[in-house]
Amino acid sequence: MMATASDFGLTCGTLPAGEWNAITDVPGVRVGHCTVREGEVNTGVTAILPHGGNLFRSKVMAACDVINGFGKTAGLVQVKELGTIETPILLTNTLSVGTCQTALVREAIRLNPDIGRTTSTVNAVVGECNDGPLSDIQALAVTEAHALAALADAHEGAVEQGSVGAGTGMTCFGFKGGIGTASRKLSLGGGEHHVGVLVLSNFGRAGDLVLPDGRRPDPRQRQDAERGSIIVVLATDVSMQQRQLSRVARRAGAGIARLGAFWGNGSGDIAIAFSTANGSDHDEKRDFIPMMTLNDARIDLLFRAAADATQEAVLNSMLEAEPFVGRGGARRASLADWLREQKSAAERGAPGVGRRLP
Fold this sequence. Notes:
By secondary structure, this protein is an alpha+beta fold. The chain has one domain: L-amino peptidase D-ALA esterase/amidase. It is built from seven helices and 14 strands. The chain has helices at about 75-80, 95-110, 145-155, 240-250, 250-260, 300-320, 335-350, and strands spanning about 30-40, 40-50, 60-70, 85, 90-95, 125-130, 170, 175, 180-190, 190-200, 230-235, 270-280, 325, 330. The strands form four sheets. It has a six-stranded mixed sheet with strand order 4-3-12-11-10-9, sandwiched between helices. Strand 9 and strand 10 (about 190-200) form a beta hairpin. Helix 2 packs across helix 3 and helix 5 crosses helix 6 (about 300-320). It is globular, with a radius of gyration of 20 Å. This is P1 family peptidase.
């Protein structure tokens, strides 16, 4: 049985979580998965939908922050330039970015036949991590049908975490990684708002992980270099400008660093943030568009929420992942199992339990 950080008493910050402690606590946001496990293939696709409508017609304000750019994402150049997202966000393995991008383009054209004819083309957004150590990435197993299945599976409410969808073959700090999510509830303007985070965790040197209580778990697997990646998707219903969203996205790096990561040369650490509060109508006719914007003097609350939720989402990605045997018999232990063993040993009074490793 898997568990989340709160089940082990691991606390990330002081802000309260939302009802689901998930990115879907932001109203309208949906998440879906398609998992592919066939022989040596352990991969998949995860879809994040900012809302359930036509995203090309009703775009959302967005920004991105590249913490370390060893990655092969699609669509971020236009997101940075124009400040909007106009398709669902798909996450997958490194060599399947093109396939997922094509699936998003086909789906957008199906819903909007004027794309590339009488209106602009569409900017599909795809994030990736390399699941090659646990999956036969050369098989190019992800298909457009898998991408569409993840989109069709997208729903509000509870989010499945761990070794699912794009997270199926991922590793984090030497333990099994994958999909993780968390949220924080905020009081602003006399109302309730949320910041939600979903991560695809595939980063961190084995032995470098630092838990919120100071313990440093040892997965008994060592590596010399940091060659992984993480994609962080942040969502909020707080009205913000692109400039502010970019600043919030940057704070995901604080949550990653708290866990012991240093963003190594071979790591692709990328954050994408969007707000569901300030939409952009593709067919807008007005010369000027009114927009409500967060007071910069209140933005620290969102900075804290982004860091805390990112830290917890990464922990949840490991705690919800079961022990895993992948390509060629490669094994990854479960962080949840390590914590249970520590608790059991402490109850027996075993020496050295819970010590901080050098």
